[in-house]
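Run folding on both entries below.
>entry_1
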Amino acid sequence: MPIHSDRVEFPGSQGEPLAARLDRPAGRARAWALFAHCFTCSKDFVASKRVSQSLAERGIGVLRFDFTGLGGSGGEFANTDFTSNVADLVAAADWLRAEHAAPALLVGHSLGGAAVLAAAAQIPEAVGVATLGAPADPEHVAKLFSTSRDEIERSGEAQVELAGRPFRIRKQLLDDLASHSLDERVGSLKKALLVLHSPLDNQVGIDNATRLFAAARHPKSFVSLDDADHLLSRPADAAYAAEVIAAWAERFLPPAAEAPHAGDDHEVVVRESGAGRFGQEIAVGRHLLPADEPTWLGGDDAGPSPYGLLLAALGACTSMTLRMYADRKGWPLERTTVRLRHDKVHAQDCAECETQDGHIDRIRKSVQVEGELDAEQRRRLLEIADRCPVHRTLQSEVHIESEPA
């Protein structure tokens, strides 16, 4: 399924703007999810991007964002802690609820997994939580800078290097991490839980998955990520995780809306998709297509515009007509390319038009033919291009009858 990835921004828990990406299917989203990235990572980290976009390809829209002080978000990382991360998640859910729909799924990677477990009670619409390589205790993260712990305790802060990048860690982060325990929260989750973990994870051991699974009540599921690393750096591992999450979530999500159905190959059915202001679902016989308006007209650009579809019909008909004619003549036509544009012009500026008042629609059609064709064959094909059925329909008198269904 084709997807769109849009940049968005919303205020975080500390009032700073949080940079985000909205990965969504081209048509109606089956449901919406929040994705929380790993400690000191970002929304554009390999696993964040791959899992989110894979879910979008399966019909689930995903909001992934940078926590305060990370990636493209505002604020100072040194002023954040686990509590502020959880509050950022709640702010993200509030924005998603206001702009699209409340998140039905919460997905978190590593410490982000612990964060979605901690935030779940504050997002009542969520029906499921999925964690990827999550620690059973947020304090597990403190092991990443254990060599600097004495300095942090003594001086109140220290600069540490994580994944090759410097970060300023303050004592408030250590104290806050130590104050959180997930056992009680997981036990009272009241949402479906999916724990995904690799037995070869050398950063967050598999025993963390065991502890989370044991603390949770049913419905709960565990899936081994086999030989994946902690960061899901291989594309296949991230895609597999997304596929499992989507399949697991199917059981807990509301039924998908039935697509519009055309009665036969001669009927076209157009129905509002419910995605955005102008989103449409089109059934052409057994084929399904999206339609929308561009963003500058207030749409989401989730599909071709009505005029885009009109030009597409004319271009496709032109190309098909040339193929049929060339094949019948036995001419060496290799490929046809048709480029089209639509605009409105003053009638008085159109020498070929009968109407001389107001504006008229103008379609400019450029036809390119490839192959060992002589000049006469090329001239004739250009004549035939103006004789395709859709071209003739657009230039003839058309009567459209509207009636109530």
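>entry_2
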Amino acid sequence: MPITSSAKKALRASKHKAVFNLRRKDAISDVVKKLKKLVLAKDIKKAEALLPTAFQAIDKACKTKLIHKNTASRKKSRLAKMLAKASK
């Protein structure tokens, strides 16, 4: 347990931020799972409609430095490539 007052405050802030970070990571994983499920079901129209939502979730996580910009770029690229391959 923290002893100094600044360490106590840092712990409170860390716990507070962890909630938002977890929510944002869950948002990414949920939308990616939905997208992959749609692609496997050959429902390309719905998957294409969901792609901007996935990009938005990834970009928000990148903006708050939850994930690195290269990781965000890689995730977006792989999703777009998967959708393009499925639509052929």
